Each structure stands twice: as structure tokens, then as C-alpha cells.
Amino acid sequence: MAGWIAEFQDALVVEFESVNDLGAPGALDRHKTARRKQWDMFQTIGGDGSLEDILTAEKNLLAFELTHYANSKAMSGSLTEALSDLTITQTLVETILDPSAYRAIDASHLRGKNRLNGLPRDEARQFFRSHGTRLLNLDKGRLDKLDKQIIDARRANMRTAEKSYIALQKTALGIEPQPLEQSRGRGVGRQI
Amino acid sequence: MDDQKPYLLPDDVGPENTRLINAFSDACMAGDDAEADRLRRLALFRPESLMALKIANGADHIRKRGYRTDLADRKYGHGWLDR
């Protein structure tokens, strides 16, 4: 296991131990330091652009939110769905490294509404978008600055993850990357 | 929640455990990995945190990192790690 994830998990454990009794001596400081560390790490992971790392960090945070904070059926359902979709995305990130396996997914997403700029709008692409929206909806007034910074970093990471995934889709389907990021229309350049 | 009562204040969760958790937290935040690793194996963390780590990383992860599962065993029942 990469060292960073152990560090990230420790920061989550510290946050949720200190939040248990914020009136205890030192608890507020520990709570803030632990969240600041998470924020730093979300930014670092996003800066490195590793799809796997972004997904691993997000999965750990979502699991902590589910077990500690989910106090309604709606919240629990939303977090459970996000975790389930994230796990499917992790599987797709492995599948996409095998072009022949990914071509089967490509072939099952032929309808116009299931494609984005010529690429399959598969479950990973759907997750990056839906989770980005979920995080946007979390950005409510009664959060402190650090909470908002963490949410912003997580949203930025979803965008980074989507870009990395699009590059993998193009590689798997034999589509040349387009430097100017200008789409030339659906299906152009596919060499299957 | 009522179902939390049985494990909120068990005999082994007291000032000594608080001291361990605080020391663990300080070691983590100071980047003292060896001390954090030692204390991680001694402290009793909240059951929800262990369940979260299991959901995100699997049961083997909990075992490899040496977390004590006493409180989680009480809340979720023995065998929760492999269910």
C-alpha cells in the first residue's frame, strides 16, 4: 500500500476521534490539523493526476462519511450509491488498460445519448459527473472555510480524474489525442 | 441512537484510551510514523472508523494495519470483519 494512503486514513481517523468530543483539551486543534492535512493531500493527489489515487482517497472519505454522518435514509442512500458507483469505476479503470476488453464496452454504448464526443459515456464517465454534482450540492452555507476547501479540492479531483479517464479511453480505442482539445465529431479517428 | 449505548462507555474506554488516541493523533500530525504505528495497535478507535476502513479497503487491510477491533466487535458483532 502506498504510504500516502496510510497517512490519509490516519488523518481521517484523527478527525473522527476528535470530532467525538470537540470540547476536550486540544480536540479543536487536532480536528483542524487533521482536516488541513486531508485538504493538502487531496490537492497533492490531484496535482499528480493519478486516477487510482484520486479514487482511493475519495472512497475512503465517502466510507467515513457513510459510517459516521449518514443520519437519514436519503443521505445513507446517496453515499452508498456513490461508493458503489466508485467501485464500478475502479473496475473500469482496470478494464480500460486492456483495449480488447474495453472495445466490448465501447460496442455496448453506441446510441447517441450514450456517447460524449465520440467516446462511450460509460459508468465511469457517469460517476465523475454525478459525483461532481453531488459534491457541488454539499457546498452549503453552514460549512467552515476548510470544509469548503476540501469539497473544492474533491470536485477538482473529479474533473482531473475524468480527464485522465478520457485519455485512457482514447488510448484503448486507438484515437489520437487532440492537442487543442477540439472535438472533431463523433467517431472520427476511431481505428478499431 | 439507542443501539450505541452498550459500547459508548465500556470499561476499557476511559482516560487511558483517550491518552492513547491523543498521542496517536499527535504522532500522525507530527509525521512520526513509527510512534503512530505503535499507538495505532494499542488504541481503541471508534467502531464507525474501522467499518469505514473495511468498506473502503477490505478486511485484510484492518488486520494488516493492526487495528484493535474490540469496540467494533461489540457494535457489529463478532465476525463483522468477514461479513
Provide the gyration radius of chain A in Å: 19 Å
Describe the biggest sheet of chain A?
2 strands, antiparallel
What low-confidence regions of chain B span 5 or more consecutive residues with pLDDT below 50? none
Give the SSE order of chain A as H and E letters. HHHHHEEHH
Distance between the termini of chain B: 23 Å
Overall average pLDDT of chain B = 89
* Biggest sheet overview of chain B: none
For the secondary structure, the number of strands of chain B is 0
Give a brief outline of the structure.
The complex is a heterodimer of chains A (192) and B (83). Chain A is mainly α and 192 residues long. Helix content of chain A is 69%, strand content 2%.
Explain how this protein is built.
The complex is a heterodimer of chains A (192) and B (83). Chain A is an all-alpha fold and 192 residues long. Chain A has a domain at 50-172. Helix content of chain A is 69%, strand content 2%. Chain A is built from 7 helices and 2 strands. Chain A has helices spanning 3-18, 27-48, 51-69, 73-95, 99-107, 123-138, 145-172; strands spanning 115-116, 119-120. Chain A has a two-stranded antiparallel ribbon with strand order 1-2. In chain A, helix 1 runs antiparallel to helix 2 (27-48) and helix 6 packs antiparallel against helix 7. Chain A is elongated, with a radius of gyration of 19 Å. The mean pLDDT of chain B is 89. In chain B, helix 2 runs antiparallel to helix 3 and helix 4 (47-57) packs across helix 5 (59-65). Chain B has one domain. Chain B has 83 residues and is mostly helical. Chain B contains 6 helices and no strands. Chain B is globular. At the A-B interface, helix 1, helix 2 and helix 3 of A face helix 2, helix 4 and helix 5 of B.
